[in-house]
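Input record, target 12 of the design panel.
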């Protein structure tokens, strides 16, 4: 069965995932990153402080015409399906017999993709990594076709350059895709491929695509590139235990059996046919550099689990091959691992819908125990309430203590400005500017990430509590928001004690 037919004849697992994505999209609010990139679309620009602009450009029509949480999640759900379809096509070309195998009446590549908790979540959250998933599969497919022949059409090279350019407009780490292209083509054709016109044409097309990013950085003193370098550097003390912790987290969030299946897919590489060995190397060239980079950077303490998503996706054809092999030799273990991942994905979905476990018993002005799933509920109400208080009190802006709290308030309260008290020169300073001496603000304090009132030296001279809003979900209070009226700004201080 071809990948195209497999995609259109959606099986039980893909259909269930689509339904679950729709339910979660309606029942949960935006995450901090989702709201942040929605603001990209609302405040269109050539590029932005922390990421290139494509994620905002593509979201713009959904912000304009489908102005809801479900509308903002339409694009990632579509991209999830496109990524799956392109992955099936890639697997069919790299390892044709894998697509003919069925486990639980489903192709192995569909299983390893759909039952990965992180890839499942990226299927409803619009972030640059969601966009890179589809682009990674497409770049790998084009590279594989170009590597197999020296009779290469100009159109193929232009298409490769275009997709690499789109990747560059998505995220700076997309340069790792270019590394995979170079390694793969060099493996197949030596350095002779660089003597042809096609690769340089692809380079020009890709470079032309990223001109907006270069223009924005020139206009802003290379702020974005300097931020990326500083963010990747992390803390001053590199620690090996952080790398081990990060590696274990990756295994958990991408699939408990992923490493074993990749090993099963590569362990007999010496016995492959030549084309199968080449296909294995293609996946490794696109997957391993990114994983190695992020594992190393995790030693500095600033690496997030979703960053290597496209590197993991590049290894999924090998994982599908290994899963198919393991189901023959170790059927019980393989299906137990798949069942564990199915349970994990279902559990995460249930916790998102129920807003986790535990109650918020703290009084106004106090913090409560951390419940990460409470983060997906209540922000729309809080932003609306804060805007109403600002109008009543004559405040000219809203405010939060930390930039991670700003995106949801700014999105749901738009076009009201939101000032970040503990600013570290970020995108919100570009959109709304720093706190001014003349500002009178409504400070929004969230119980799950609670800060002391900013009335220390060089902060506000007065911060008066004026209201509190409980967040009740399914009859249970999971958090609360405190609102303070602050004025008399005396300066700026970089940090505050949470």
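The sequence produced for target 12 reads:
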């Amino acid at each position: 069965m071809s990948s195209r037919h497999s995609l259109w004849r959606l099986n039980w697992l893909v259909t269930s995932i689509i339904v679950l994505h729709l339910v979660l999209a309606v029942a949960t609010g935006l995450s901090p990153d989702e709201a942040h990139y929605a603001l990209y679309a609302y405040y269109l620009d050539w590029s932005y402080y922390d990421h290139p602009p494509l994620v905002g450009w593509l979201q713009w029509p959904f912000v304009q015409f489908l102005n809801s949480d479900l509308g903002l999640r339409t694009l990632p759900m579509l991209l999830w399906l496109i990524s799956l379809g392109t992955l099936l096509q890639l697997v069919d070309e790299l390892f044709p017999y894998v697509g003919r195998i069925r486990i639980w009446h489903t192709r192995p590549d569909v299983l390893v993709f759909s039952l990965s908790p992180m890839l499942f979540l990226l299927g409803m959250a619009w972030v640059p990594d969601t966009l890179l998933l589809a682009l990674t599969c497409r770049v790998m497919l084009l590279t594989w076709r170009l590597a197999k022949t020296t009779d290469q059409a100009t159109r193929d090279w232009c298409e490769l350059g275009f997709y690499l350019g789109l990747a560059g407009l998505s995220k700076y780490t997309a340069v790792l895709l270019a590394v995979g292209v170079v390694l793969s083509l060099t493996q197949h054709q030596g350095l002779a491929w660089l003597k042809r016109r096609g690769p340089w044409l692809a380079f020009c097309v890709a470079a032309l695509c990223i001109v907006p990013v270069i223009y924005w950085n020139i206009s802003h003193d290379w702020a974005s590139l300097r931020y990326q370098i500083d963010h990747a550097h992390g803390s001053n003390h590199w620690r090996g235990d952080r790398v081990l912790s990060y590696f274990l987290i990756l295994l958990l969030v991408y699939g408990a059996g992923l490493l074993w299946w990749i090993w099963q897919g590569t362990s007999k590489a010496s016995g492959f046919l030549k084309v199968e060995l080449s296909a294995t190397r293609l996946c490794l060239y696109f997957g391993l550099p990114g994983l190695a980079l992020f594992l190393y950077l995790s030693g500095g303490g600033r690496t997030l689990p979703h960053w290597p998503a496209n590197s993991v996706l590049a290894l999924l054809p090998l994982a599908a091959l290994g899963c198919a092999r393991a189901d023959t030799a170790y059927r019980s273990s393989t299906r137990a691992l798949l069942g564990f991942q199915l349970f994990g994905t279902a559990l995460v979905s249930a916790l998102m819908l129920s807003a986790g476990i535990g109650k918020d018993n703290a009084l106004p002005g106090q913090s409560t125990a951390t419940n990460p799933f409470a983060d997906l509920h209540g922000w729309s109400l809080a932003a609306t309430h804060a805007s109403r208080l600002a109008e009543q009190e004559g405040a000219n802006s809203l405010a939060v203590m930390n930039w991670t709290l700003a995106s949801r308030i700014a999105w749901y309260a738009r076009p009201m400005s939101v000032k970040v008290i503990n600013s570290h020169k970020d995108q919100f300073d570009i959109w709304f500017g720093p706190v001014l001496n003349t500002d009178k603000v409504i400070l929004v304090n969230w119980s799950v990430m609670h800060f002391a009132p900013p009335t220390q030296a060089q902060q506000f001279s007065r911060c008066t509590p004026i209201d509190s809003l409980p967040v009740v979900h399914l009859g249970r209070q999971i958090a609360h928001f405190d609102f303070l009226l602050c004025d008399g700004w005396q300066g700026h201080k970089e940090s505050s004690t949470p």
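Residues 274-298 form the longest helix (25 residues).
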